[in-house]
Specification:
Protein name: DUF885 domain-containing protein
Structural class: mainly alpha
Number of domains: 2
Low-confidence stretches: none
Pfam family, one: DUF885
Distance between the termini: 32 Å
InterPro entries: DUF885
Strand content: under 5%
Largest sheet: 3 strands, mixed
Radius of gyration: 23 Å
Mean pLDDT: 95
Number of helices: 23
Number of strands: 5
Organism: Nocardia macrotermitis
Helix content: 55-70%
């Protein structure tokens, strides 16, 4: 940043991104920064301290920037709100040692080391040369990660035992996913050029050995040391994480009650749809189990990938010009199959800043080759179009009017997931889910998000199950009860349910953001509609909303209401 100018908030945010890319090449790769392609971040305590120091420096710069002429414009004001809220929330995590016990089945620093290879450029020999160098950096990255966990042990900052056990299983799968003596990294480089075959195979072997070394240390040293530690985090830690993932200081007891109100509303709608499918079904999930066997389905992994691609392509064709105005780069999204060893839930990766890597949806197959349609349609409206892809793709498209920070790494989980859940509801409102199978699948997905609010808050805070609950009224939540409840009120198979509960123990406060984020988007839309009356235009509102970048939930409702 130039020392001769007085930067505005967006310039401060852009400078922060530049400095953060230098600290974290994984972020750089997701943004498409070529200089990041051959290295990995420092995951040691020193690396975390450097990230905290950068956040403090940036907040100081932001203080000065907000005093400059022009800082009160809408563009600058929104950027400043986001940057301050995000850095404050991140510092609350870093400075309480949460990064010293980051172990679980997804979203950890160790997971980012593997996942970055799935978005690394592979078009040229130079790209593969960079991949080989990055593979050789895996041991140092995992060594820094171990150093952080070891310091956490010394400070008695323990991860939860259940997610730790799952992580050991994942590392075993990464090291030899098909029980053929080859690890995931070795399979990954098989697509590389033959001119680099020896180097790629050697580098992949180095990375795979680091996976095994980390697995053995977690299994033999870390897991025994945390035996007996709680799986839940308690109210204080939960509030801290909920702020991080939601961008708001939530009333957790009110949110818990909201989860229950949505549970009862959705159950009534599900019963109505279930009656159309299997008259007399005892519960909606009996009808969904019937669909697993007798409903519409896709056979084959390649076939389901192509079917999902077609679903998104049709949604783009239908929605563009009617409910959205989509730029050409945003109209491209790719359907992909997730690598083995991922969590059970589908996910999305956003395009690079120049769209050379498009947005992609990812389906974990979990070994399946037969895919019922009912639980895929609304899920791909969520992950792809009009969900994550339209929001994140639009951010990249309008990045010149935002800051790089707003268009990329400043994303607030509840804003993103709230929009994606809003997108599912929008497609229902627009009449795309009139088929009873698909609508029951949509409602089941909505019920899963309501159940997340209930069990995530309930088990971490050990709240009482209310008297109006059909499940164990009057008892206190535990992870075991949470898994039983979730399984009883979801069509998902047992391995998915187990993976989900482990996810909630790994990332407390994240899963509630879907429903709470959807509520924020709906509230903002309703407020804007009341302001404009008959002049309210949904397409214009959508595009203005998608073009303002990320915000935490409190700020999001305020800004959406102004549009």
């Amino acid at each position: 940043m130039s020392q001769t100018t007085n930067p505005l908030p967006r310039q401060v945010a852009d400078a922060y991104v530049d400095e953060l890319i230098d600290l974290d090449p994984v972020i750089g790769t997701y943004l498409g920064a070529q200089r990041s392609s051959s290295t990995l971040p420092d995951l040691s305590p020193a690396g975390q301290e450097a990230a905290a120091a950068l956040a403090h420096r940036t907040l100081t710069r932001l203080d000065a920037a907000e005093q400059q002429p022009g800082a009160d414009s809408d563009l600058e004001r929104r950027c400043a709100r986001l940057l301050r809220e995000r850095l404050t929330a991140e510092l609350a995590i870093l400075e309480t040692g949460e990064g010293l016990r980051q172990v679980g089945n997804m979203g950890t620093a160790a997971h980012s080391v593997r996942e970055v290879f799935t978005v690394s450029p592979t078009a040229t020999e130079a790209d593969w040369t960079a991949i080989a160098a990055r593979l050789r950096a895996v041991p140092a990255a995992f060594a820094g990660y171990r150093e952080s966990l070891q310091l956490g042990l010394e400070r008695e900052l323990f991860a939860a035992p259940r997610p730790t056990a799952t992580f050991v299983q994942q590392l075993t799968e990464w090291s030899d996913p098909n029980d053929e003596g080859r690890g995931w990294f070795e399979d990954f480089v098989a697509a590389g050029p033959e001119s680099l075959r020896a180097e790629l195979d050697s580098a992949a072997g180095v990375a795979n050995a680091a996976v095994l070394e980390l697995r053995d240390w977690i299994r033999d040293v870390y897991a025994p040391a945390i035996k007996g530690a709680p799986n839940t985090v308690g109210r204080e830690r939960y509030a801290r994480w909920a702020r991080y993932f939601n961008g708001a200081d939530l009333d957790l007891d009110e949110a818990y009650e909201y989860g229950w109100s949505e549970f009862h509303r959705l159950l009534g709608e599900m019963c109505t749809e279930a009656e159309k499918i299997l008259p007399g079904a005892e519960t909606p999930w009996v009808a969904l189990a019937y669909l697993d066997e007798h409903g519409k389905h896709i056979e084959g992994v390649d076939e389901v990938r192509e079917w999902l691609q077609g679903l998104m392509d049709r949604a783009i064709a239908d929605l563009d010009g009617t409910h959205f105005e989509l730029a050409a780069p945003v109209r491209k999204v790719e359907s992909c199959i997730a690598p083995a060893g991922a969590a059970a839930a589908p996910y999305y990766t956003q395009p690079s800043e120049d769209f050379s890597r498009p947005g992609r949806t990812w389906l974990p197959t979990m070994g399946q080759t037969r895919f019922p349609v009912y639980d895929l349609v609304s899920t791909w409206y969520h992950e792809g179009v009009p969900g994550h892809h339209l929001q994140l793709g639009q951010w990249v498209h309008v990045a010149a009017n935002l800051s790089r920070y707003q268009a990329s790494i400043g994303g607030v989980s509840a804003n993103l997931e709230g929009w994606a859940l809003y997108a599912e509801r929008l497609m229902d409102e627009l009449g795309y889910l009139t088929d009873a199978e698909q609508r029951l699948g949509y409602l089941d997905a909505q019920m899963m998000r309501a159940a997340r609010v209930i069990v995530d808050i309930g088990m971490h805070l050990e709240l009482e199950i209310p008297a109006h609950s059909p499940f164990h009224p009057g008892e206190r939540w535990t992870p075991e009860l949470a898994q039983e409840f979730f399984g009883a009120h979801s069509s998902r198979p047992a391995d998915f349910v187990e993976s989900e509960l482990t996810r909630y123990l790994t990332m407390p406060g994240q899963a509630i953001g879907y429903k709470l984020g959807e509520r924020a988007w709906l509230t903002g839309r309703d407020n804007a509609r009341r302001r404009h009356g008959d002049a309210f235009d949904l397409k214009s509102w959508h595009m203005a909303a998608l073009s303002q970048g990320s915000l935490g939930l409190d700020d999001l409702v305020d800004e959406l209401s102004r549009l």
